[in-house]
Amino acid sequence: xxxxxxxxxxxxxxxxxxxxxxxxxxxxxxxxxxxxxxxxxxxxxxxxxxxxxxxxxxxxxxxxxxxxxxxxxxxxxxxxxxxxxxxxxxxxxxxxxxxxxxxxxxxxxxxxxxxxxxxxxxxxxxxxxxxxxxxxxxxxxxxxxxxxxxxxxxxxxxxxxxxxxxxxxxxxxxxxxxxxxxxxxxxxxxxxxxxxxxxxxxxxxxxxxxxxxxxxxxxxxxxxxxxxxx
Length: 230
What we know:
Layout: H1 2-8, E1 11-15, H2 20-31, E2 38-41, H3 51-56, E3 65-68, E4 71-74, H4 76-86, H5 98-124, H6 128-149, H7 162-171, H8 174-181, H9 185-188, H10 190-200, H11 203-206, H12 212-227
Helix pairs in contact: 2-4, 2-7, 5-6, 5-7, 8-12
């Protein structure tokens, strides 16, 4: 019976180490104590995407993809919800209250849209004026998230949850943003940095996000090679 159970629970993750979206899935799996799964590293070059990725996510052709018992689930926060619902445990990521669930999804979407767009412009933009505009938007987004966080330990209160999982992978990119924007995030948004330091103490987070120095070196080289920004 054990062998049958293991086969039924086959879990694979199509992954890339620097992707904050893949980090979310790894954090969620770790929070549910799912540690035995195959992590398949993808080459993100447009001409080098694996046949498995194209088969499992034919619509967007993007990572992450969680393959559970041969069935694919795409889009990072969709995967996080799937993990939360399938491996229930004692600490759900989302509240049982409909309003609180709606609020959590709203702010996770804010991270995926306004905040992600600003952060992307910040490190990819060559024009100095546009980069300053992106920096201002980035800081404004973080200040908005600080208001949501308030004086709580985590966004969900005293419990690490859905919004935390959505945002904390970006913390590993903060050194990149600071280098590209020539500013100090802690001076601008001290509550977010304190929250990030608290999250990183969690085993699930600490083992799922890369070291800032390593990530910064990699992304700055990408920036130079593909966007011509030194």
